[in-house]
Write a structure and sequence with these properties.
With 409 residues, the chain is mainly α. It is built from 14 helices and 2 strands, in the order βααααααααααααααβ.
C-alpha cells in the first residue's frame, strides 16, 4: 500500500488510462493491418474505413492523454485538487464520447472537440507562478496541437494532409520534447541549466525541420529541397546529440525511463532525420504518397512520441510508488522496440515494391496487394510482437499496481 495525496492518486489514474488506451490501440492497429491481406477474414463484418478511422482516433487520444498526463506531472502545483479531479472526469468523458462517435464523424471534428478541452487545461498552466522551461515548451507544443486541430475541419486538400503532418512532426513532437528533457533531469546527472537551454534550442530546430517536412507535399522547388535536406537531418542529429549526453550521464534511477528515451531518440532520428529528409524531394514525396512507405514514416514518428510517453509512465509511476525500482519490465521494452523497428523496415520495403509495381508496371491496388502478400504477412507478425509487448507492459503495470490510500490535506 502507498500513501498519496488526492492529486497523486489522480496522476496514477491518468497513468492507468494511458495503459488502457495503449491496449486499445494495439487491437486497432492489428485489425487495420488485416485489411492489407489479399483475403481478409474480417472484410465481411467490418468496414476498412471504419477501422482506420477508429484506429487513427485511438492513436490521437492515446497521444493526447499521454501528453496531458506528462503536463500534469510537470505542473501539479498549478491546479487545485478539485479542479484536477473535474478535468480528469471531463477528459474521460471526452475519450468515451469521441471513441463512440469516431465511426460516424470525421476525425478532424473530433480533434477540434479535444482541442477545446486542451485549451481549458492550458489556461490553468499559464496562470502558474513558477513555470519551468520544460513546461513552457510543452505548453507551446500543446498550443500548436490546439491550433492545428481547430483548423483541421476547415482545411481541404492538400491542407488537411499538411496539417496532419504538422501535428505529428511539430506539435506533438515539441510537446513530447518538453517532457523528454524534463525526464532527463530526473534520470540523468546533467546540469539543469544545460537541459533548460537545450530544450529551447532543440524545440526551435524541431519546429523548423518539422515545418519543412509538413509542407513537402506542396512540392518544394529543387533548390529549396536540396538546401533543406541536410538542414533537417542536422536538426534531428542535434536532438540525438542532446539525448546521448543525458543518457551517457545516467544516475542510479532504476526505472526504464532512460531506455525508452533512447528508443524514442533512435525513432526520431530515422523517422525525421532520414525519412523526413528524403521526403523533401518533390519526386520522392510524390512517389511515396499513398504507399506503405509514407505509412512507415507516420508509424515510426508516432512511436517516437509514444516511447517518450512510456518513459514518463515509468518515471512518474516509480516516483509515486516511492521506491527506486522498475514498474514495467524489459520484455515489453524489447518487444515494442524491435517490433516497431522491424515493422518499419518491412513497411518501407513494401512501400518501395508498391512504387515499383505501380509506376513501373501500372498494376492496380488489388494486384499490388497480391504481389506484396509475403512481406505483408511478415509485417503483421512484427505488429503482433508490438501488441504482445504492449500487453506485457499492461500486465506488468497492473500486477505491480499497489493499493492507494488517499491522505487528507
Amino acid at each position: 500500500m502507498i500513501r498519496l495525496s488526492r492529486r497523486g492518486k489522480i496522476q496514477y489514474q491518468f497513468l492507468s488510462l494511458i495503459v488502457l488506451l495503449l491496449l486499445l490501440y494495439s487491437a486497432c492497429f492489428l485489425l487495420d493491418a488485416l485489411f492489407q491481406l489479399p483475403a481478409n477474414p474480417l472484410a465481411l463484418h467490418f468496414g476498412e474505413e471504419t477501422i482506420k478511422r477508429v484506429s487513427a482516433r485511438c492513436l490521437s487520444l492515446l497521444t493526447l492523454t499521454g501528453l496531458v498526463g506528462a503536463g500534469l506531472s510537470m505542473a501539479t502545483d498549478s491546479y487545485s485538487e478539485r479542479m484536477l479531479q473535474f478535468f480528469q472526469r471531463a477528459w474521460i468523458a471526452l475519450i468515451i464520447a469521441t471513441m463512440i462517435a469516431s465511426p460516424l464523424l470525421r476525425i478532424s471534428l473530433l480533434d477540434a472537440l479535444s482541442a477545446i478541452g486542451l485549451l481549458a487545461l492550458l489556461a490553468l498552466t499559464f496562470s502558474a507562478n513558477d513555470v519551468s522551461a520544460f513546461l513552457r515548451v510543452w505548453q507551446a507544443g500543446m498550443l500548436l496541437v490546439c491550433a492545428s486541430s481547430l483548423a483541421m475541419p476547415f482545411a481541404g486538400a492538400p491542407w488537411d494532409k499538411i496539417l496532419d503532418l504538422f501535428q505529428w512532426h511539430v506539435a506533438y513532437s515539441i510537446a513530447a520534447l518538453g517532457a523528454a528533457f524534463w525526464l532527463m533531469t530526473r534520470f540523468s546527472s546533467v546540469e539543469r541549466d544545460w537541459a533548460k537551454d537545450g530544450v529551447k534550442i532543440v524545440a526551435v530546430l524541431l519546429f523548423l525541420s518539422g515545418s519543412l517536412i509538413s509542407i513537402a507535399p506542396l512540392g518544394l522547388p529543387p533548390l529549396v529541397s536540396v538546401s533543406a535536406t541536410p538542414v533537417v537531418a542536422l536538426c534531428y542529429m542535434i536532438l540525438a546529440g542532446h539525448a546521448c549526453r543525458a543518457l551517457g550521464l545516467c544516475n542510479n534511477d532504476m526505472s526504464l525511463a532512460p531506455h525508452w528515451t533512447a528508443v524514442a531518440t533512435l525513432f526520431f532520428l530515422v523517422a525525421g532525420g532520414f525519412l523526413g529528409a528524403i521526403s523533401l524531394n518533390a519526386n520522392v514525396n510524390h512517389a511515396m504518397r499513398d504507399t506503405a512507405l509514407a505509412e512507415a514514416q507516420h508509424w515510426l514518428t508516432s512511436w517516437a512520441i509514444l516511447a517518450i510517453l512510456c518513459a514518463c509512465l515509468n518515471s512518474v509511476a516509480t516516483e509515486l510508488r516511492g521506491g527506486n525500482r522498475r514498474v514495467t519490465g524489459y520484455a515489453p521494452l524489447w518487444l515494442v522496440a524491435f517490433g516497431v523497428a522491424l515493422s518499419t523496415i518491412l513497411q518501407g520495403c513494401r512501400g518501395v515494391v508498391e512504387i515499383y509495381l505501380r509506376d513501373g508496371f501500372a498494376l492496380e491496388r488489388a494486384g499490388i496487394i497480391e504481389m506484396t502478400a509475403p512481406l505483408t504477412q511478415i509485417w503483421i507478425i512484427c505488429l503482433l510482437a508490438v501488441a504482445i509487448g504492449i500487453m506485457t507492459l499492461a500486465l506488468g503495470f497492473w500486477a505491480r499496481r499497489p493499493k492507494v490510500q488517499v491522505e487528507s490535506g
